[in-house]
Amino acid sequence: MMKIAHFSATLQPGQDGVTRVIYTMIEGALARGHDVMAYGALVPEPIQQIVPMVKVPSIVLPLQKAYRIPLPGYHAFARSLQKFQPDILHINSPCPLGHAAVRYGLDYHVPVVATYHTHFPTYPRYYKLGTIEAMAWKILKNLYNRVDRTFVPTKPILDELRDHGIVRLEYLSNGVDLRLFNPAYRSTAWRRGITPTDKPILLFVSRLVWEKDLRVLADMYTILRSRRDDFAMAVVGDGHARRELEVLMPGAAFLGFQKGTTLAESYASSDIFIFPSTTETFGLVTLEAMASGLVPVAANVGGTAGIIQERQSGMFVAPLDPKDLADNVEWLLDHPRERNEMAQRAIIRAGHFTWEKILNQLFSSYENVVETYRTSGSGIARHVERNVS
Considering the entire predicted model, what is its pTM? Predict the structure, then answer.
């Protein structure tokens, strides 16, 4: 049995793809008899907590008020962590809390691992801050090269991290909850709420922030609307860009933030999944859509590129190209038989990303890190980099 401490800026259940993965890891640990604690700036009420959670001091994140930035330093959680006596620390975001956990691990001789969930170096360009992208990479390199292992969910992103000088990387995919995300949640009533005449429904699911390439989505929608009116568009998610996006996409149904079976119903009741984002480390929403029986049309870059099989379980388009996106969506609209066949292959493809196998690898890696750390003495265990397929 191990004692595992998780660190993430937010631990609100279902808030985004990262939190869904974190909770799956926590539940997997509990099922295997491990003890877990979690630390974050945003935590659910105690009655909703599946493990003990500690809320750390924080400030509101500008532009994204649903998130908070933890304050630097580990003094807010050091006493709790010393009482827990963890065998390993797992950081899930490169925020000040992640840096504090790494510092704690070094000071108190506890091994630290990380998961590279979010591709932050790509974000500054969306807010006219492209000049600090190099600085962002420098900060990430400084953080991740001080941990004992960094788990990366797709090989394209692992290669990119390696190219930027980050070491001790291990490929560890994310998975999908096939009990929740599957075609059984398809609802005629939901569809009629979007399109009474039962037109094919295009779906986009994401936080509504500009780094998800929302302008490409809006331009694609405008192009398609100029060509035809035999489809409907639904957008699931919320964020600071929602109001402007609603203006850019008149006639689209904006459904707000969803989670659980409500989200599963939205996926399964739609037909084509649109995902132009070029900033994904994995693209969990794409995998959830595929498991639900949708054909994804996504940018051929980053994490999503490691999920879809071109023209088999989905379609790739040129990054940041709304016309190419519209052309491929239009082809699917015009070829319903081929679309349905591709949807069936998408379900099969998603079935390969089962959490059981992934979690077994995760906990095996934990044990390897802890053992290597103990046999090598204090400090970062300089073990051989792994790239497990």
Answer: 0.86
